């Protein structure tokens, strides 16, 4: 069998998973896409192991380890998603934007006019409100 | 003790006195006066001893090397010849007199401690210059004198005049000292040593490659220190210092250091005819110009300052015709009578409560109030005007004789042209000197008007010092017969021609001034002007400081130079008309206005140097503010704008970050593959 | 490690045809998994994709891995994912907001990555032939022998990792009693 077939299939599966990771909104769907990527790698490992006729069968052993680690990963990942969902009421990734540069920081940090303090103050009070809305 | 040990002690004692005075000044105020006077007196005694032992014989040389200093060695060397030992005696006499006088003059001054220590330090430095046999060691003393002069001129630093004058004195002399230092290095590089004996030996064997260059560089330093044209402008302003300081530093000793230096190294200068001619022209311009300026001054101390410049011009003239014996002879006699003139002027200023001659001329009976100052001043002025048999007559005649011999070709050390220049300008200056001496005496002591203010007796010590100094002013000229042996060996006695010519011209000057004064004095009561500013019972130094501070306000710009009021040249004329009772106004005619302002040299310097430098500074300031700072500000705001753009990318969406990261990875991977494929 | 000297792309063997067909199914299922609007369907399509991969393993004579794939992925992981979907109250039926606004960028990155990788892989392995003849290289016997002879230490370390993951998952998903009481 041509080695190119499993290799190309692995590439395509990997890129499909990549697309899923980047494009999906729900955290559990992202986890599924990660599984796809891992499987693509596994296919590569097995194919090359068979082709090389490795005496230690390192490729197959590593595949087994990858599967085990993927299982552990999915467990931890799901636990995290559940916890986020419990705390925030959502598992949408693009709503988890606590790290974003907010407009408040910009006005407070930039100009030193007397109005800036008031703007920053109102922004600071608005921040927790938004979080409360998100949690509801 | 050997002569060398004595000679080492001479500069060392005042130095130790200065140190001890500074250290003990606060804790033990009682020691300050003895510490100021006694080391100087001891130095004087030792200097006299050294002079007696040296006896005008062969020069004594001693040297020790503290540490190797590379290719051109620097030694702690003494070079004691007739010039050195006699000049040291003069320095010792004047310094002792000034220290004694200061104990009375500055008796209540809060800064007397530092003042006395600085005067001691100055004395030590001057003695070092006089005795030193090594040019580098000489330079050390030279610069210490400069800094002491700076501090002492600024003694009344509360007045802006004193502050400006001290800075000006320092900067102008340093302006000369820079070429002086370069000249010293050039000389040492040519001669291979800093020792004066070594340098003179190299000159004798023709070992100096660039005599003209070296001589002209050294002349710049000499002109700065000895207040010769064109670097003389600091000396009249330096009169803002206390009178004893003016007497010691700015009349008798420090300003003579330049002349003394040239006298020591005269063969170096004589090796270049061009340098001798430059020196002669410099001396001539200085003499005549300062004579005219002295005639027009209103401040008594400024008259004396310009007179000092003129007499230093005589010494330079003597050097320009290659006769250092005459130069040092005039240095010695001038040191004595000029110190006396200044110290007596200090008494007069205290008694009159003003330093303005115009005010004194409206004051009756000043001479009767201060008989000691009156008589000693008369003696000193006669000496200044070179009336026989006073000291100034003999020394000035020695200069004129040397000039005449050079002009007529009897002496071949210097070009004949230099001799003619010095002779003619010297005779002209003799006329002017007699004129301003007469004017000073008439205006100060023959005033008509209200009674001079009553005041307490002058301190005894001050009057005693005046009489001590009057002795050499009277009688030093009689030593003319023996002095020649102490110096270069040729006679310094006057010849009939120059004696008759010089004395006649001096008498003419004095009589013309007297006649003019008779004419103008009648106007004095009709033009009252000025006021006595200082309280007559105050400490002399306080009176003087007050007089300096109020002079400009009370009398306009007639006396002081216009640089105290930084104004364009067109506005530099006196704001009030000069005193019509002044005989100089009639004598000088339209020249008076310019002479009073020192021929506007300060304004010329201001236009030539100060304003271009200020314009350049403001240009640099503008460039810094508008150009350099724009770049700095641009760097700051550019970074800020970039930061604001970058923070827009911080959406908080992890998927966006990841997309960018992976896109970057893909681009990198493709690039790597392309490179690997050789595409 | 034999070069595909006499094996052109235009003369596929039976195994290759089977591999291609199953591969197309697997890829299609994977694409549907990442594009479908129905969340539960995505999980079910993932089962198809993972199962297809198990068949591919079988075709590559790695039979033990194939069974492990079926057991662990299809058996447990997907079930876990389904539980996760339910616990997060994922909507049943079409949800219009399954994809984020990042789609075009994601598509561009994925296509570019795929193009680059396929180009490289084809360029490198277009003439490489896998010799599948002889004894199965991934039989349970062979796998067990190498796993417990050569890889036993990593295997044990992996068990510790699994334990840690287990504990972590429990700790994370446990409801905090105090906070519960506080709220």
From TrEMBL, chain A:
Its main location: membrane. It is found in: Cell membrane; Membrane. It is a multi-pass membrane protein. It catalyses: a quinone + NADH + 5 H(+)(in) = a quinol + NAD(+) + 4 H(+)(out). Residues 95-136 are annotated as: Disordered. This is NADH-quinone oxidoreductase subunit K. GO terms for molecular function: NADH dehydrogenase (quinone) (non-electrogenic) activity; quinone binding. One of its GO terms (cellular component) is NADH dehydrogenase complex. Residues 95-109 have a biased composition (Basic and acidic residues). The chain crosses the membrane at residues 61-84. NDH-1 shuttles electrons from NADH, via FMN and iron-sulfur (Fe-S) centers, to quinones in the respiratory chain. The immediate electron acceptor for the enzyme in this species is believed to be a menaquinone. Couples the redox reaction to proton translocation (for every two electrons transferred, four hydrogen ions are translocated across the cytoplasmic membrane), and thus conserves the redox energy in a proton gradient. Its EC number is 7.1.1.-. The keyword S-adenosyl-L-methionine does not apply. One of its GO terms (biological process) is ATP synthesis coupled electron transport. It holds the Pfam family Oxidored_q2. Belongs to the complex I subunit 4L family. It comes from Streptomyces lavendofoliae. Keywords: Cell membrane, Membrane, NAD, Quinone, Translocase, Transmembrane, Transmembrane helix, Transport. NDH-1 is composed of 14 different subunits. Subunits NuoA, H, J, K, L, M, N constitute the membrane sector of the complex. HAMAP family: NDH1_NuoK.
Automatic annotation (TrEMBL), chain B:
One of its GO terms (molecular function) is NADH dehydrogenase activity. InterPro entries: NADHpl_OxRdtase_5_subgr, ND/Mrp_TM, NU5C-like, Proton_antipo_N. GO terms for cellular component: endomembrane system; membrane. PANTHER family: NADH-UBIQUINONE OXIDOREDUCTASE CHAIN 5 (PTHR42829). Its main location: membrane. It is a multi-pass membrane protein. Keywords: Membrane, Transmembrane, Transmembrane helix. Residues 68-115 form the NADH-Ubiquinone oxidoreductase (complex I) chain 5 N-terminal domain. It is found in: Endomembrane system; Membrane. The chain crosses the membrane at residues 6-24, 36-56, 76-100, 112-131, 137-157, 169-188, 200-224, 245-263, 269-296, 303-321, 327-352, 373-394, 418-443, 464-484, 496-517, 657-677. GO terms for biological process: ATP synthesis coupled electron transport; electron transport coupled proton transport. Residues 132-403 form the NADH:quinone oxidoreductase/Mrp antiporter transmembrane domain. Residues 555-578 are annotated as: Disordered. This is NADH dehydrogenase. The keyword Protein biosynthesis does not apply.
TrEMBL record, chain C:
NDH-1 shuttles electrons from NADH, via FMN and iron-sulfur (Fe-S) centers, to quinones in the respiratory chain. Couples the redox reaction to proton translocation (for every two electrons transferred, four hydrogen ions are translocated across the cytoplasmic membrane), and thus conserves the redox energy in a proton gradient. It catalyses: a quinone + NADH + 5 H(+)(in) = a quinol + NAD(+) + 4 H(+)(out). The lineage of its organism: Bacteria, Bacillati, Actinomycetota, Actinomycetes, Kitasatosporales. This is NADH-quinone oxidoreductase subunit J. The chain crosses the membrane at residues 17-35, 42-60, 66-85, 105-122, 151-172. GO terms for molecular function: NADH dehydrogenase (ubiquinone) activity; quinone binding. GO terms for cellular component: plasma membrane. Keywords: Cell membrane, Membrane, NAD, Quinone, Transmembrane, Transmembrane helix. Belongs to the complex I subunit 6 family. It comes from Streptomyces lavendofoliae.
């Amino acid at each position: 069998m041509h080695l190119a077939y499993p290799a190309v299939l692995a590439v395509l599966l990997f890129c499909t998973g990549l697309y899923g990771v980047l494009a999906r909104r729900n955290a559990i769907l992202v986890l599924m896409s990660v599984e796809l990527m891992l499987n693509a790698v596994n296919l590569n490992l097995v194919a090359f192991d068979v082709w090389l006729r490795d005496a230690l069968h390192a490729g197959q052993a590593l595949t087994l380890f990858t599967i085990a680690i993927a299982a552990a990963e999915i467990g931890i990942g799901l636990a995290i998603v559940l916890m986020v969902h419990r705390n925030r009421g959502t598992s949408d990734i693009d709503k988890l934007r606590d790290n974003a540069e907010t407009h408040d920081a910009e006005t407070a940090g930039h100009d030193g006019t007397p109005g800036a303090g008031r703007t920053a103050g109102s922004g600071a009070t608005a921040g927790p409100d938004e979080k409360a809305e998100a949690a509801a | 003790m050997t002569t060398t040990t004595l000679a080492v002690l001479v500069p060392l004692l005042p130095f130790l006195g200065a140190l001890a005075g500074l250290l003990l000044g606060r804790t033990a105020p009682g020691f300050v006066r003895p510490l100021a006077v006694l080391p100087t007196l001891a130095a004087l005694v030792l200097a006299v001893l050294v002079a007696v032992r040296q006896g005008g014989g062969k020069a004594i040389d001693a040297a020790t090397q503290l540490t190797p200093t590379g290719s051109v060695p620097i030694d702690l060397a003494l070079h004691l010849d007739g010039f050195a030992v006699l000049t040291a005696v003069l320095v010792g006499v004047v310094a002792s007199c000034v220290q004694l006088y200061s104990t009375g003059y500055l008796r209540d001054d809060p800064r007397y401690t530092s003042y006395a220590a600085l005067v001691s330090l100055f004395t030590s430095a001057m003695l070092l210059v006089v005795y030193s046999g090594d040019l580098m060691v000489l330079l050390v003393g030279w610069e210490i004198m400069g800094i002491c002069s700076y501090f002492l001129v600024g003694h009344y630093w509360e007045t802006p005049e004193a502050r400006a004058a001290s800075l000006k004195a320092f900067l102008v002399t340093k302006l000369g000292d820079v070429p002086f230092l370069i000249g010293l290095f050039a000389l040492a590089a040519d001669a291979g040593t800093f020792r004066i004996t070594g340098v003179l030996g190299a000159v004798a064997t023709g070992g100096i490659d660039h005599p003209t260059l070296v001589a002209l560089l050294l002349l710049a330093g000499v002109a700065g220190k000895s207040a010769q044209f064109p670097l003389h402008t600091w000396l009249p302003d330096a009169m803002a210092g206390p009178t004893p300081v003016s007497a010691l530093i700015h009349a008798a000793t420090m300003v003579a250091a330049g002349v003394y230096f040239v006298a020591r190294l005269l063969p170096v200068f004589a090796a270049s005819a061009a340098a001798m001619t430059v020196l002669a022209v410099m001396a001539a311009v200085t003499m005549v110009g300062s004579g005219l300026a002295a005639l027009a001054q209103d401040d008594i101390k400024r008259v004396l300052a310009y007179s000092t410049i003129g007499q230093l011009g005589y010494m330079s003239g003597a050097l320009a015709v290659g006769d250092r014996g005459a130069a040092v002879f005039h240095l010695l006699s001038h040191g004595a009578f000029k110190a006396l003139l200044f110290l007596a002027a200090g008494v007069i200023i205290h008694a009159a409560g003003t330093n303005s001659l115009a005010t004194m001329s409206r004051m009756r009976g000043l001479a009767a109030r201060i008989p000691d100052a009156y008589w000693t001043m008369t003696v000193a002025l006669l000496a200044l005007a070179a009336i026989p048999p006073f000291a100034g007559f003999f020394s000035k005649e020695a200069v004129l004789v040397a000039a005449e011999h050079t002009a007529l070709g009897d002496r071949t050390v210097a070009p004949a042209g230099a001799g003619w220049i010095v002779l003619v300008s010297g005779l002209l200056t003799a006329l002017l000197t007699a004129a301003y001496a007469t004017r000073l005496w008439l205006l100060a002591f023959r005033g008509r008007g209200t009674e001079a203010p009553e005041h307490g007796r002058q301190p005894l010590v001050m009057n005693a010092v005046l009489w001590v100094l009057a002795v050499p002013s009277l009688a030093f000229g009689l030593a003319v017969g023996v002095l020649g042996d102490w110096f270069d060996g040729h006679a310094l006695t006057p010849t009939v021609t120059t004696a008759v010519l010089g004395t006649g011209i001096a008498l003419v000057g004095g009589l013309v001034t007297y006649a003019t004064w008779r004419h103008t004095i009648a106007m004095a009561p009709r033009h009252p002007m000025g006021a006595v500013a200082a309280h007559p019972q105050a400490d002399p130094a306080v009176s003087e400081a007050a007089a300096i501070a109020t002079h400009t306000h009370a009398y306009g710009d007639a006396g002081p130079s216009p640089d105290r009021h930084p104004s364009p040249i067109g506005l530099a004329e006196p704001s009030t008309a000069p005193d019509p009772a002044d005989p100089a106004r009639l004598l000088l005619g339209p020249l008076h206005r310019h002479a009073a302002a020192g021929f506007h040299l300060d304004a010329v310097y201001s236009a030539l140097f100060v304003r271009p430098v200020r314009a350049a500074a403001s240009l640099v300031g503008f460039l810094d503010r508008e150009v350099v700072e724009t770049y700095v500000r641009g760097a700051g705001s550019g970074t800020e704008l970039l930061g604001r753009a970058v923070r827009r990318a911080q959406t908080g969406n992890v998927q966006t970050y990841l997309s960018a990261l992976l896109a970057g990875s893909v681009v990198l991977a493709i690039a790597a593959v392309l490179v690997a494929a050789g595409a | 490690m034999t070069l595909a000297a006499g094996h052109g792309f235009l003369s596929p063997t039976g195994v290759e045809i089977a591999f291609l067909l199953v591969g197309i199914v697997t890829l299609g299922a994977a694409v549907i998994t990442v594009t479908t609007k129905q969340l539960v369907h995505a999980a079910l399509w993932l089962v198809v994709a993972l199962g297809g991969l198990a068949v591919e393993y079988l075709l590559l004579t790695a039979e033990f891995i194939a069974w492990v794939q079926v057991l662990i992925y299809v058996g447990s992981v997907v079930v876990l994912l389904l539980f996760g979907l339910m616990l997060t109250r994922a909507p049943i039926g079409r949800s219009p907001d399954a994809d984020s606004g990042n789609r075009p960028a994601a598509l561009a990155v994925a296509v570019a990555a795929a193009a680059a990788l396929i180009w490289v892989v084809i360029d490198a392995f277009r003439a490489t032939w896998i010799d599948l003849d002889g004894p199965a290289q991934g039989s349970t016997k062979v796998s067990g022998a190498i796993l417990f002879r050569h890889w036993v230490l990593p295997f044990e370390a992996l068990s510790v990792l699994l334990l840690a993951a287990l504990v972590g998952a429990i700790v994370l998903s446990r409801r905090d009693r105090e906070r519960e009481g506080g709220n």
